Amino acid sequence: MNEILKLITIAIGVLAVSIYLAYRELTSHKKKSFQNADLALVVSPDTVLVIKVPKVIEGEHFELLAAPVAAEQMFSALHGLLKFTPGIQEHITFEIAADSEGVVFYCTLPHQLQSYVESQIYAQYPNAQITVTADYIKTDDKFPCFASIYLKHVKENYFPIRTFRDFEVDPLSALTSSIEEVSQKSKAFVQVLVRPIADGWQSTGYQYVEMVKMGTQSAGWGLKDIFKSFGEEIMAVLGNIPKRVFYTGEAYIPQRQLPARPEPERAAVLSEGQKGELESIELKLSKMGFETIIRIAVASPDEATANTHLKSLTASFKQYGTSNLNSFTASGISSFDDLSSRKFSTSDSFILSTDELASIFHLPSASVETPSISWSLAKRGEPPINLPTENCTYIGRTTFRDRQVKFGIKNDDVKSEDRCRHTYLVGKTGTGKSTIFENMIIQDMKNGNGVGVMDPHGELVEHILRNVPDNRINDVIVLDPSDAQYPVGLNLLECSNPAQKNLMASGLLSVFKKHFGQISWGPRLEYLLNNAILTLLEVPGTTMLGLTRVLADDNYRKYITHRINDPVIIDFWEKEFKAMKGNQSLSSEALSPIQNKVGRFLSSSTIRNLLGQRTSTIDLTDIMDNKKILLVNLAKGRIGEDNSNLLGSLLVARLFFTVMQRVDVPWENRTPFYLYVDEFQNFASESFAGILSEARKYRLALHLTHQYTAQIPEEMQMAIFGNVGSIIALTLGAQDAKILEPEFAPVFTENDLINLEAHHFYIKLIIDGMTSAPFSGVSIPPPTKEEWTNNTEKILNLSRQKYSRPLADVEDRIRKWVERPFDLGMAIAEEQRGKTETKIEQDTESIDNKIEGEYKIRGGTTPTG
Q1: What angle do CA 478, 483, 484 make, to 5 degrees?
Q2: Are residues 196 and 290 in contact, defined by beta-carbon separation less than 8 angstroms?
Q3: Radius of gyration of the chain (CA)
Q4: Residue 763's closest CA among 771, 752, 781, 775?
Q5: Which pLDDT band, with edges at 50, 70 and 90, does 275 fall under?
Q6: Which of these, 260, 47, 295, lies nearest to 152 by C-alpha position?
Q7: Which of these, 631, 652, 639, 641, lies nearest to 608 by C-alpha position?
Q8: Cis amide leading into 746 (omega within 30)
Q9: Residue 88: CA atoms inside 13 Å, Cβ hemisphere, count?
Q10: In a 3-state reduction of DSSP, which class is residue 820?
Q11: Backbone angles phi, psi at 591, to 5 degrees
């Protein structure tokens, strides 16, 4: 009986040892890789990155495996994060999340790893856009019911799952399609938590392969086989009990029948299927491994929907499984806290190789046709090495690889004149053009520069007024025709240098030609209008109001022509114009358009009171030379679109005429003046092309913006692209993108220009006289309300006091001029009176000079008073 008890004890011992061996088999890789594994849970991810890639990369050959292969290389590089002290091993979470707004790819990681991980992602996905974002996993009252599970391997870790090389289509397609379908009514989450594991986890797999090759273990051996083995051990022991009880001879020694071990030189004969299985296992064992947790979660309006969607998501992972190798199965329930904290629980982990991880998580490519994936719509370009970041007028911040470096155009000095090579912005309405202008203008004001602003909407001027620095209040001149009670005087026919009158007439004529249009404009009309302008320029004190009167009022025309000395112009009026007036058809053809267009323009009281004053109250030369601030508010909603466009064009022509007077001033004494023209196509006449090419010489820096290229003639487009130093493109329409693509190729494409986000732009920047390669940027937000200087009312009052005249006086003078009956006799009388006054002045001057000379001879002092 004692023998029986002894045998039972042995059997129990064998059972215990077998169970222990089985447990050791399951946990051996973890014991070899981590000591104190619980300590590894201390360092948790705290930085969330959203990752986007372009759907189609222009100019590159598309390959189905490109995206997962890139991910495999990325994971191989990330294995370098393995620490020698396992107790502080961090983990990274790669996530795919979706709701009604789309499918988004994330990476959550400890902050100290951000730079390294980003560099590895960029190394494999150069066109990726990585942005730090707020954590998106939050409780949502719309989706109160939460369901989540873990996935685990069915077999041991050394058995591989199907990888991307085993698929005919990208496995990410099925996964994202399932996520997208679930996200229509729920929120879906797939988390892949990884941390590198040291070599050594492969040892059990290599032992298994060796045993199968030598015939000591059948292929497919696993946990089931362990229990079968020690079960056979128990049956062998129990089967020997009767023999021992009834055996009466010599002591019985039980003999266990073990399978014969083949000789080393005699390997087992394997089938093709077994060979393929072992090759797959060896391939996995040859790669680096990551301890991995896969967590799937769904947040839904109700519990039934959550469970249904969770099952649907889980089913999408069946594509990775095979019957003879490995697959996934649901194992354990995860909590919302585990999901949101990205908890790494060692008990729920298993090992995946780099290619297995890449099969489950990689960034999408064009082969993934899930409709709601969040792609990067426009590429981002790398800025030049010599990007100006100091002593410049800032335009925006770079966006390449989310490195936001503030940059701008170098300020003008003795060494640089980049700003005087002009800046051109184009983009749809609401994309951020005015924001860039606003920031640049504010900087110019703070830097003490001379600034001019032409605004056809009024908003930009209002924004500038509230940001004028306190020390520049007295430098501001506000020209607002709609400010009817305080009319500013601007006589466009004032010409201090008679030699420049043809240049001035040419500029004015170019403006009228643009606004008359091709239908009414013709050679005869141009000839007539040119002579009328030249005539008025000959007579001091005339204004634009005389333009229609000299054509319609015979007496006024006689009065004016008597006061001019140019024989060619006199001959025109006395012969050609008289003949034209005698021909009703010619007269109507030439005179009617002028009366209609110019007459209607000048009939507006706001325009008439501005341009009808004999002497100007603002001096454009003084404004440019002494760094004043000219703000021109041409709001179409207040003075009308036609009036706004024509007045703005006349002002631009006058500004350019004024700056050209610097021709006799040495270059170093020409003070830079920065003119900003919003929606410049409204004010751009034919002469504008000449302005672009000549303005730099006179240190007039133009900043031009508009919405689309069809607004300007092709000749002007060519002038812009040929003369402008810096070109900035914001979001464009299809036609404009096609036109501007050559300017930004090969870095950016037509689709990139179309898909730019609001306030993002592409730029070719002038740097030390050379144009840079195109790169991307984002505009700087304008000053906040707390940063405003709020000097608007003070500035308006000062400007009115200094530069406007009382409305009643202006209107009274214009009324008297209109009612005055000019004629030839008046001109003759004025001429005689002028001669008399001149002779008296000359005689007085002669007497004064004689007296002064006598006193000097005597050695005395000239008397005063």
Answers
A1: 135
A2: yes
A3: 44
A4: 775
A5: confident
A6: 295
A7: 639
A8: yes
A9: 5
A10: coil
A11: -85, -35
H-run or E-run covering 854: helix 824-858
Cα–Cα distance, 242 to 246 (Å, whole number):
6
464: which 2 tokens? 């500038």
Class of residue 686 by CB neighbours under 10 A (exposed 0-12, middle 13-18, buried 19+): middle
Q: What's the CA gap between 476 and 452, in Å, rounded?
A: 10
Please give the C-alpha separations between residue 425 and each of 160, 493, 704, 771, 780, in angstroms, as whole numbers: 56, 32, 6, 15, 15
Q: Is 328 helix (H, G, I), strand (E, B) or coil?
A: strand
Using the Cα atoms of residue 260, residue 265, residue 268 and residue 274 in order, give the sign of their dihedral: positive
Q: Helix-strand-coil percent breakdown of the chain, rounded to 5?
A: 50, 15, 35
pLDDT of residue 15: 59
Distance of CA 361 to the CA centre of its chain: 28
Do 674 and 698 touch, CB atoms closer than 8 A?
no
Paired strand residues for 761: 777
**CA atoms of 505 and 295, how far apart (whole Å):** 78
Q: How many CA atoms does the CB half-sphere of 860 hold within 13 Å?
A: 9
| Rounded alpha-carbon distances, angstroms, from residue 603 to 229, 480, 596, 609, 815 | 109, 17, 10, 10, 13
Query: Which helix (H) or strand (E) segment is 607 a member of?
Result: helix 605-611
3-state secondary structure 781-794: CCCCHHHCCCCHHH
Which position has the token pair 């009176």? 833
| 694 exposure class (CB count in 10 Å sphere: 0-12, 13-18, 19+) | middle
CA–CA separation, 795 vs 788, rounded Å?
14
Within its chain, how far is the Cα of 273 from the centroid? 55
Average pLDDT over residues 431-443: 96
Strand 406-410's sheet: what is its strand order?
406-410, 392-398, 775-779, 760-764, 726-729, 423-426, 700-706, 673-677, 450-455, 629-633, 476-479
H or E, element range at 555:
helix 554-562
**Under the phi-then-psi rule, with left for phi > 0, alpha for psi from -120 to 50, and beta for the rest, what region is 365?**
beta
409-415 long-range contacts, CB within 8 A, separation 24+: 409/726, 409/765, 409/766, 410/767, 410/768, 411/447, 412/672, 412/699, 412/701, 414/668
Bridge-partner residues for 189, per DSSP?
Answer: 97, 297
Nearest to 713 by CA among 739, 684, 691, 741: 684
Residue type, 154: V
Q: Tell me which residue has tokens 């980049």.
A: 418
Q: How sure is the predictor about 14, in pLDDT bands with cuts at 50, 70 and 90?
A: low
The residue assigned the tokens 């685990």 is 152
Q: What's the pLDDT score for residue 159?
A: 95
pLDDT tens-place string over residues 575-633: 999 888 888 777 777 788 888 888 889 999 999 999 999 999 999 999 999 999 999 99
Q: Which of 192, 372, 374, 368 is nearest to 296 (CA)?
A: 192
Cα–Cα nearest to 691, from 661, 648, 723: 723
pLDDT digits (tens, 9 = 90+) for 557-568: 999 998 898 999
Q: What is the pLDDT of residue 125?
A: 93
Query: Which comes out higher in pLDDT, residue 727 or 46?
Result: 727
Interstrand relation of 673-677 and 450-455 (parallel, antiparallel or unpaired): parallel
Q: Is the pLDDT of residue 225 over 90?
A: no
The CA distance from 684 to 689, in Å, is 9
**Would you tell me how many other CB atoms lie within 10 Å of the CB of residue 848?**
11
Cβ(162)–Cβ(322) below 8 Å? yes
CA-CA distance, 782 to 788, in Å (whole number)?
10
Cα separation, 290 vs 349, in Å, equals 10
